[in-house]
Amino acid sequence: xxxxxxxxxxTFGLRLDGVLSFVAAAISLATAHLxxxxxxxxxxxxxxxxxxxxxxxxxxxxxxxxxxxxxxxxWAVVIGNAGWAIGSVVLTNSNWIAPNGxxxxxxxxxxxxxxxxxxxQYLGLKRSLRKxxxxxxxxxxxxxxxx
Length: 147
What we know:
Radius of gyration: 20 Å
Helix content: over 70%
Shape: elongated
Structural class: mainly alpha
Largest sheet: 2 strands, antiparallel
Strand content: under 5%
């Protein structure tokens, strides 16, 4: 079984990720036309990223409220966030979305923030796993009967 009780740090990292992803997505959707012009990318790209971040934010925010999580799910979030941060850096010099200077700054800022999520979530996951190991290593006592 790979269930863990999330450490306070893991809960914080997931909640921060969820809330900021949701808020950024809502702002992006509300200002998509302005954002498209400001960062020099397509409206479709702005919408796609915003919708993904909106759904992701809700799901991760919900996960942060659970008393137990599957460690594999948390690993997937950590690895996915690391990939997102790396991808954001790669996109700054790509022709795929062709961001302008402000767009590059947004991508690099996003990469830095997502890297913070990776660190918080990874360290929180390590603490959660360590606690699970310590708990399972303790000798289990059973009640004895005086009959």
